[in-house]
UniProtKB/TrEMBL annotation:
Signal peptide: none annotated. It holds the Pfam family Ribosomal_L2_C. Residues 226-286 are annotated as: Disordered. One of the primary rRNA binding proteins. Required for association of the 30S and 50S subunits to form the 70S ribosome, for tRNA binding and peptide bond formation. It has been suggested to have peptidyltransferase activity; this is somewhat controversial. Makes several contacts with the 16S rRNA in the 70S ribosome. The lineage of its organism: Bacteria, Pseudomonadati, Planctomycetota, Planctomycetia, Planctomycetales. It comes from Alienimonas californiensis. This is Large ribosomal subunit protein uL2. GO terms for molecular function: rRNA binding; structural constituent of ribosome; transferase activity.
Amino acid sequence: MGIRNYKPTSPGRRDASVADFAEITDRKKKPEKSLLVRITRKGGRNNQGVITARHRGGGARKMYRLVDFRREKDNVAAEVVAIEYDPNRSCRIALVQYADGEKRYILAPAKLEAGMTVMSAESGLDPDVGNCMPLSAIPLGTTVHNVEMRPGRGGQICRAAGTEAVLNARESSWAQLTLPSGEVRRVPAACRATIGAVGFSEHSAISLGKAGRKRHMGWRPRVRGTAMNPVAHPMGGGEGRNAGGRHPCSPTGVLAKGGNTRKRRKNSSKSIVRRRKSRRYGVQKI
């Protein structure tokens, strides 16, 4: 797998790149029909038709692949049938077929290939790539992904392409993980995780090259607040190019820089052992 750079045949192609899809087993293979559902696109609007998520709309049509994030089918071997492309996420997905004939999609970790066997169990499994088990049964220092935050809820941590977490320690009924952001977090040791890192780590190196490719993903253009009228944004208006006359803020007046965006009384804050480093100043957040 890797990145393929386009030749600069046009301004839109210049500096643009795309994945070479070398890890896809069969480019002509259609996705498993029984694991496809059609999703309704709302364009960022809620049930009352009001835009609550800005800059969304349009995009290429796509079907949603039902991915098994829970991996609760224990002690049944599953063969990897194919590695496929998923338009709904940055990583690849793997189609696995269990010994009883059932097929499911899972996130494709790095170094997982067609023909390999994966399994889920409460204990007794080797820490091989693609196997899923509780954190209490995984050796310390192992790289994991698709980690649950609550037992049985399904993986929520480290699901994007190239991400991984490291199991550092265990104490009583808790396990300690180091996340990609540098944050150290406690999760219940009964939570499940999959061995290995998520595949296709080259995703972050792809350059879109033109605005149209962003529109294909369902993202509409962003407009600067200073370019708007005062009726549309607090920083709008003014004669000529005005800097806004106030600190940067959102259309509703919420300050955009220097403030914490996390709720002070968020219930999961007590599970954070060490916070991630601030991207702006390179220091640990308090």
